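From the shared-data thread, chain only:
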Amino acid sequence: MPLQRRTRGIGHGLSELRRVKAATVNSLQFPGAHQAVQIKRRRTDRKTGKTTVKTVYAVTSLTAEQVTAAQLAELVRSHWKIEALHHVSDTTFAEDASQVRTGKAPRAMATWRNLAIRASARPE
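Structure, as tokens:
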């Protein structure tokens, strides 16, 4: 798979290099799969110098004509942001263990949790 996108970023005390490769697939065991994606992140802690490498694979029903490798990378990053928010709400408020399941209560509780998370994340 040829390298199609490379980006660098610095933030939160980390230096990060992301490489994206995407390939059209025809014979995967996933119905509707059109592309396989590999994203490799190399992060270096700027204080300690420790480097970690993580490789993530994904499959999408989007064709190469519908989305570029750069757009796929942004879609994956957006999903990670959602997962990070969910992780905070679940570990802080035990959201997955909530027994509120009927009517408008689940949405109202999620709104209150998200409000609390955002309020606590604001810089002073």
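Residues 69-93 form the longest helix (25 residues).
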